[in-house]
Specification:
heterodimer; A: alpha/beta; Rossmann fold; 6-stranded mixed beta sheet; 4-stranded antiparallel beta sheet
């Protein structure tokens, strides 16, 4: 279980996360909603141990262990994976290399290259392509596939639907549902309320670095109006 | 004014092979760690001198080369972990620090070896000359050419066919993301720094046998390495090979045809290239 308590992060003097608290339970999909510049990505980066922003107060704990102050490779070693905003694939690496750089192609435990390719047949057809030769949807698939190779128990996904065609967004929602079935917990950053409600169990709304609302997704599906005032979306 | 003949072209190619060996290490460090390691020339010189002593003592060129590589790789580890780790991410400080290290290594080698000129002894089988395409050419310089090709092939395989190579390339692209995938990028940095330094040491021994080693040899090889990497593009192996070829051949042509302008013949075209491709032939924006 992930527990973020009263987290404060700064870019220089800019106070971007202002005392955010939230939890992600086992096998739970939690959506973090908010408009641009509200601190969503800063919060995710703080959880992953990426600096900047710099965490100055509060804590992030995973299964009771404090992550704050660890390097991000130590955090990843605790089975927390990142699907970053903008995908951030490696332009010099082929599709296969994105996976084998983390785990040998011969590995048989957990998520293997074969198992990941089964989940994303499109990537199997593109094995030898480089990251920058893929379509937007394929890039997102690869970013998720790469994250799976560390056998995560929690995936932090930062706006995975950004820039995707509606049909790809739907496909992605299907993938998230399958990962949840496979036992993963997911903290999903979204701007798109409806996409978030399609997959999330619970929803938090972040505004200027603070969590301002928390709700069960099921309660919102029929009545999203209560969130729209926070998000300014339609 | 003399024309260009095969002899001079071979001189250019063998010089290109030497500066490729040195510059490939330079570009690995520059590409991954984003450090212009101005101590690279000093590592070349110290490696060459240490290799000279080891080769003299053991009577073996190979032992000299291996000793130089091990020693300079260890120096690289000390430089990376002991000094550069204090100024991570601040490029200007890193550059100044490596410049300071270059001066210190230079002075230390003056203390140990003095200011004389040394020539690393060449193994028996590589002495003398052989016929190539109608010219008599030193065997040893042909060996340097072959060694340059072997180093290129080995580095190409390492970078493109191994997991470590994939990590290095990914680290050149986006080190933060590599770290977020659970990989200790510092360790990859350290290994790359040691490999790059070892190549400078190897270059010192190999070059020390035909260019000789003297107190300012480090600055000269550094300037050539910089030119190679700037022409080829930061962190690109193929770029370094093409850059070395270009610099080696231009150097040979310049020395024969325009001896007074030998440096201009190299750096003039380099400036022109940079005007059109500021990141070099194979460079990519960070």
């Amino acid at each position: 279980m992930l527990e973020i308590r009263d987290l404060h992060s700064f870019y220089g003097e800019a106070h971007v996360v202002q005392g955010a608290s939230l939890t992600v339970r086992d096998r739970e999909v939690v959506a973090l909603l908010g408009r641009n510049g509200m601190g969503k990505t800063s919060l995710i980066r703080s959880v992953m141990g990426l600096s900047a922003p710099q965490v100055r107060r509060g804590s992030v704990a995973w299964k009771g262990e404090v992550l704050t102050g660890m390097t991000s490779h130590e955090i990843a070693g605790r089975k927390i994976a990142l699907v970053p905003q903008g995908r951030r694939l490696f332009p010099s690496l082929t599709v296969t290399e994105h996976l084998t750089m983390i785990k040998s192609v011969r590995a048989r435990d957990g998520w293997t290259v074969d198992r990941v390719m089964e989940l994303f047949p499109r990537l199997a057809e593109r094995r030898q392509h480089r990251g920058n030769q893929l379509s937007g949807g394929e890039r997102q698939m690869l970013a998720v596939a790469r994250a799976l190779m560390i056998d995560p128990e929690l995936i932090l996904m930062d706006e995975p639907s950004e820039g995707l065609a509606p049909v790809m967004v739907q496909h992605l929602e299907g993938i998230i549902a399958r990962l949840k079935e496979a036992g993963l917990a997911i903290l999903l950053v979204e701007q798109n309320l409806y996409s978030a409600l399609a997959v999330a169990d619970r929803v938090y709304v972040i505004e200027t670095g603070k969590i301002v609302h928390e709700a069960d997704a099921s309660a919102l599906v029929d009545n999203p109006q209560s969130l729209i005032r926070f998000l300014g979306v339609h | 004014m003399m024309g260009i003949n095969l002899f001079q072209i071979l001189n250019g190619l063998t010089f290109a092979a030497l500066i490729f060996i040195v510059a490939s290490g330079f570009t690995l460090i520059f590409g991954l760690l984003r450090i212009v390691n101005l101590a690279h020339g000093a590592l070349y010189l110290v490696g060459g001198l240490a290799g000279y002593s080891a080769a003299k003592a053991s009577g073996s060129f190979v032992v000299g080369a291996l000793a130089a590589m091990v020693l300079v790789a260890a120096l690289g580890a000390v430089l990376d972990r002991g000094l550069l780790s204090f100024v991570r991410g601040v490029e200007l400080r890193q550059v100044l620090l490596t410049l300071g290290v270059a001066f210190i290594l230079n002075d230390i080698s003056l203390v140990i070896w003095g200011g004389d000129t040394f020539s690393v002894p060449v193994p028996e089988v590589l002495r003398g000359a052989m016929w190539i395409g109608g010219v008599m050419y030193p065997k040893y310089r042909i060996f340097v050419l072959v060694l340059g090709l072997l180093v290129f092939a080995a580095l190409w395989l390492l970078l493109n066919k191994t997991r470590l190579g994939a990590l290095i390339r990914a680290g050149v692209d986006d080190p933060e993301m590599v770290e977020a995938m659970g990989i200790n990028i510092r360790r990859v940095f350290l290994g790359t720094f040691m490999l790059g330094a070892a190549l400078a040491g190897l270059g010192g021994v190999v070059g020390g046998a035909f260019l000789t080693l003297y107190p300012s040899a480090d600055a000269e090889i550094l300037v050539f390495s910089l030119a190679v990497v700037i022409i080829g593009g930061r962190g690109s192996l193929v770029g370094a090979a093409l850059g070395a070829l270009l610099v080696g051949l231009l150097n040979a042509i310049g020395q024969v045809m325009f001896p007074e302008l030998a440096y201009f013949v190299i750096f003039g075209p380099m400036a022109l290239l940079l005007a059109f491709r500021p990141l070099g032939l194979f460079g990519r924006a960070a």
